[in-house]
Amino acid sequence: MPHIDVDRNLPGIRALMAFRPETAAPMGELANVLLRDDEGLSMAERELIAAHVSYLNDCFYCHQSHGAIACEYLDGNKDLVEQVKKDYNSAPVSDKLKALLSIAGSVQKGGKYVTPEQVERAKTLGASDRDVHDTVLIAAVFCMFNRYVDGLAATTPTDLSTYPPRAKQVATNGYGAHIFSAKQTVV
Amino acid sequence: MAYINVPEGVPGIRALVMFRPETGKPLYDLAQVLLRGESPLSEAERELIATYVSYLNDCTFCMSSHAAAARCLFSDNKDTVDAVLKDMQHANVSEKLKTLLHIAGKVQILGKEVLPEDIEAARKLGANDREIHDTVLIAATFCMFNRYVDGLASLTPTDPAEYDAMGKRMTEKGYQLPTTG
Predict the structure, then answer these.
(1) Residue B154 is part of which domain span?
(2) Is a pLDDT exceeding 80 seen at residue A187?
(3) Total domain count for chain B?
(4) Which three-class secondary structure string do you get for A17-41?
(5) I need a surface site. Which of A14, A56, B100, B107 has the fewest CB within 10 A?
């Protein structure tokens, strides 16, 4: 049960955003600008970073949601998404993305865990300054979203079939105000 | 030196949002509405929560700048800020605020650390849903800002006077996306 009185018909962060639309607006905008962008890192890669960090933070709602969105961009390759979440080193993704996921994993522990060597390695493998920036910020942003969702004990659907329909909507329309205002049946 | 090519000599988060204003804008908007917008928690209390979480995350830039802002806002009671950082449970703040700071400390570890009894303790002392919401979101938001600043090794000034100036600016002008250092 959520720690505060929010709409029980909305899962996860959406109930929290509906509770306080004033803070929801910049958070939705941030997610949209940061995740719905194909420059340098693809939208799939950005969602994989988000899902991996959420998995490390043990936030079921976020790693299921963003894993499902990544899956939408990856032609339904669920196995790849699960592998990246749990053990990206053995996943068939580029060495550049592995280097960036390693940075994201350090950010999850704390900013100071990121080392110059990690950044150097990512750059050697072709990561630009913007790629490094976006990786660190995505990881940091999910350290926020994950804590917001679990810190208020937001409702987390356990039925995994409820995540893909929502993911399709995000893959089509992006993030933003509609995320928490649109009617939906997922409970 | 920062890990990416940000404007030289610009400290902390300011350099990062100048590097990428597209993400900087919603980040500053979030800080403004959360720390300066309407809330049952005072601006001083909200800055104190931000400072406390940044301290727990060992983020010198965020801790020092928000501590400076909190000192300005607490004005005659500015010693409160350092007392909370030194020993929160024995500091001269309300018992209710202590329970909220305790919740913020749990959020800093991880969301699931916040237990129903932590919430119950705050409610018993009068905390309402909005205060609990804002406390959790401020703590979560600073878990982001702290990681953003230190994860990119942004410039962290060591002169306390620089932070005093920042605190004054944050108190008077709030959070507006910087276009210069």
Answers:
(1) 12-173
(2) no
(3) 1
(4) HHHCHHHHHHHHHHHHHHHCCCCCC
(5) A56
In Å, how far are A18, A106, A118, B167 from A112, measured between CA atoms? 34, 8, 12, 24
Q: Is A145 within 8 Å of B140 when comparing Cβ atoms? A: yes
Q: What CATH number is attached to the domain comprising B154? A: 1.20.1290.10
pLDDT for res A179 = 54
ipTM of the complex: 0.98
CB interface of A with B, residues 92-121, below 8 Å:
103, 106-107, 110-112, 114, 116, 119
How many residues in total does chain A contain?
A: 187
Is residue B49 predicted with pLDDT exceeding 80? yes
Asked, for residue B180, whether it belongs to a domain, the answer is: no
| Distance (Å) from the alpha carbon of B122 to chain A's nearest alpha carbon | 11
Please report which confidence band the pLDDT of residue A177 belongs to, taking 50, 70 and 90 as the band edges: low
Q: Using alpha carbons only, give the angle A99, A100, A102 rounded to the nearest 5 degrees.
A: 65
Give a yes or no: residue B179 inside a domain: no
CB burial class (10 A; 0-12, 13-18, 19+) of residue A48?
Answer: buried
| Residue of A133, A138, A146 to mutate when probing chain B, most B C-beta within 10 A | A133
Q: How far is B38 from chain A (nearest CA, A)?
A: 10
Cβ atoms of A19 and A175 closer than 8 Å: no
* Rama region for A126: left / alpha / beta (φ>0; ψ in -120 to 50; rest): left
**pLDDT average, residue stretch A43-60:** 98
Note the helical H segments in chain A. Answer: 12-19, 21-35, 43-56, 60-73, 78-87, 95-109, 116-124, 129-151, 163-173, 178-181
